[in-house]
Design a protein that fits this description.
It is found in: Cell membrane. The chain is mostly beta strands and 191 residues long. It contains no helices and 14 strands.
Length: 191
């Protein structure tokens, strides 16, 4: 309560975060105002609980051939709710129903890299990252789409033709590379 009766010598403080150390001070007051605060109490830690907050800013992409790079903002220590905190990284090829999961045991780690030769270049994956600690598993983040690593284009442009325009200019033309064959976002061409 905000104000405690002058004959009461205990109070229950609620809505605290789990597994956080707190110290308390008490101020006596009357109709004139409040006095000096007491010395702080000894530090007291609240009990552990299952984590309630998943990591934010889940995304990824890039990396090397045959890699899926997943990144996130780590959960702050005051929201980890207990010892043994870590992440559960879940991903699947877009359109698939089966999740692949990996455990990241370090609470400060902001990324996970899945390496597998079967990963096709620039393929979309559904990704989500959950949390856990010694008390159990907490929620997952919302599902987001992350693309596997790109590779250089595997084919050259076809149908290259050149036409003289003047004594100092030649127009060069070519057929576009089909999107699926480009192994990623095609940024441009070099002539």
């Amino acid at each position: 309560p905000d104000v405690i009766d002058g004959k009461t010598f205990t109070s229950t403080v609620v809505d605290l975060n789990p597994w956080v150390e707190y110290e308390f001070r008490v101020v006596a007051s009357n109709k004139i105002g409040g006095g000096e605060p007491s010395l702080p109490s000894e530090k007291v830690r609240t009990e552990e609980a299952v984590p309630e907050v998943p990591p934010s800013e889940v995304s990824g992409g890039g990396g090397s051939r045959s890699e899926l790079v997943i990144t996130w903002d780590p959960v702050p220590e005051e929201l980890q709710n207990g010892e043994g905190f870590g992440y559960v990284v879940a991903f699947r090829p877009s359109g698939s129903t089966t999740w692949i999961q990996a455990v990241v045991t370090s609470p400060d780690t902001p990324r996970y890299v899945f390496r597998n030769e079967s990963i096709l270049p620039f393929s979309p994956y559904d990704v989500r990252v959950g949390v856990y600690n010694n008390k159990g598993e907490g929620p997952f983040s919302a599902v987001t789409t992350v693309f596997s690593a790109e590779e250089e284009p595997s084919t050259a442009p076809a149908g290259v033709a050149a036409t003289s325009l003047s004594s100092s200019a030649i127009e060069v033309s070519w057929a576009a590379i089909p999107w699926k064959m480009s192994n990623g976002r095609l940024l441009g061409y070099e002539v």
